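User: My instructor asked us to take a sequence, write out its structure as tokens, and then describe one feature of it. I'm not sure where to start. Here is the sequence I was given:
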Amino acid sequence: MKKLIDDRYLKTAFLVGGIYDILLGIPMLFLPDLTATLLNVTKPEPIIWAQTSGVFLIIVGYFLLIGTQDARRLAFIGVGSAVIRLGYATLTVLSWLTIGIEMGYMLVAMTDTLTAIILLVPIFLTEEVSWKQLWEL
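Assistant: Let's start with the prediction itself. The structure tokens for your sequence are:
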């Protein structure tokens, strides 16, 4: 058994994750009011929090796009991104259950969870990617 999954699926997962993050991050950075309106959530106060999240998303997306060059060797980027996404989704669901945040945040949490799955499945179905490799360059 050589490979369970082809490199192109792994690279596509990195590409999808990177584009998603950048497409969400740019409006959060430059048009935070419009982004809040489109997601039907309260405008964040202070606005710097939404903009900081936008910068963070752009950086994560950029590194995922870099990861497409050698997705097997840089699989740790995909795993890290998936962990961040699942962490956000978990906190969002807990906030929704306890304090009742707006559904717009839940929409982002659902798409983050889907994107995390898209990233993790090809990584873990690639037999050359081991847990040890995820922690070394």
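For the description part of your assignment, you could build on this observation: The chain has a mean pLDDT of 88. Try explaining in your own words what that tells you about the chain.
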